Amino acid sequence: MTSSRSPEPVEERHADRLSTWHGHAQPSQAERLLRSLGRLDRGAYRAVAEMFIPRLDGPLRRVSDFTNFSKPWFLVAGVLALFGGRQGHRAAVTGVAAIGVTSFLVNQPMKLVGERRRPDRRQLGVPESRWVRMPSTTSFPSGHSASAAAFAVSVGDTVPRLRLPLRVAAAVVAFSRVYTGVHYPGDAVAGATVGALVGWTTSAVARRLRPDPSLPRSSPSGGPI
User: Fold this and answer.
1) Using an 8 Å Cβ cutoff, are 212 and 187 in contact?
2) CA-CA distances (angstroms) from residue 45 to 5, 93, 134, 135, 144?
3) Residue 221 pLDDT > 60, yes or no?
4) In the Cβ-directed half-sphere of 222, how many Cα atoms lie within 13 Å?
5) Which of 31, 53, 104, 190 has a CA that sits 20 to 30 A from residue 198's CA?
6) Listed residue (26, 28, 38, 1) closest to 16, CA to CA
7) What is the pLDDT of residues 130-175, one digit of tens each?
8) Which of 215, 190, 206 is nearest to 95 (CA)?
9) For domain 53-209, which CATH number applies: 1.10.150.20, 1.10.606.20, 3.40.640.10, 3.40.50.150?
10) What is the mean pLDDT of residues 176-205?
11) How many Cβ atoms sit within 10 Å of the Cβ of residue 116?
């Protein structure tokens, strides 16, 4: 549905669809909620765009670019597989599997259903010094944020000492996608949530399929044998 207003996030698009489907004069609760979320999303995007921290422009632009195709996560997985012993190999396989599942979910059904247009960075005030190449895919959800969260959660669950640094790195990646203007905050939050859920599920499945022999086995009563 085309609008003369500024580009709308996906919440507004779905609210318009609901309005067309039920045809009532008064908007439903679901429509009002979606439009409120859309306004919140645009407001948060503008707030980030108005941040004036020039020292962050270059580093966050490089972070956003470097995470294309999950490059840092595959590099970490390679190091873990080569030098991390049995636990590192297990973490690497689990992390790569989590990225694969997440990428499929995000880039196929979710982006097709979302149909969100990318933000208009110029109109919404993102300084050009922050810009990276604008992807040609739809905006919702953020694939970069999803893959980062999936890897951080799945690997951090397998190698606990990596949990904090990987989650901080994933948060920086998600913020960089909003800071450089290629995603609305809602895209990043949704992507990170999906990625975290897939990462946790992948790790849980891996533990069930191949129990870690370094962990104590439990007796039927719940205590160690």
Assistant:
1) no
2) 16, 35, 16, 17, 17
3) no
4) 0
5) 31
6) 1
7) 999 999 989 999 999 999 999 999 999 999 999 999 999 999 999 9
8) 206
9) 1.10.606.20
10) 97
11) 25
140: its two tokens? 């919702």
Q: Which residues pair with 224 in a beta bridge?
A: 218
Q: Given the structure tokens 């905006």, which residue do they identify? A: 139
Residues belonging to the chain: 225
- Place 75 in a pLDDT band, splitting at 50, 70 and 90: very high
Can the peptide bond before residue 220 be classed as cis, meaning omega within 30 degrees of 0? no
Domain segments of the chain as ranges: 53-209
In 3D space, the residue among 106, 140, 110, 129 whose CA is nearest the CA of residue 54 turns out to be: 129
Cis amide prior to 141 (ω within 30 degrees): yes
Going from the C-alpha of 73 to that of each of 20, 90, 100, 153, the distances in angstroms are: 43, 14, 12, 12
Instruction: Label residue 88 left, alpha or beta by phi (over 0 means left) and psi (-120 to 50 means alpha).
Output: alpha
User: What pLDDT score was predicted for residue 219?
Assistant: 40
Query: What is the pTM assigned to this prediction?
Result: 0.83
What is the phi/psi pair of residue 224, to 5°? -65, 150
Q: 152 near 168, Cβ under 8 Å?
A: no
Q: How far is CA 70 from CA 17, 86, 95, 149, 160, in A?
A: 34, 23, 11, 11, 21
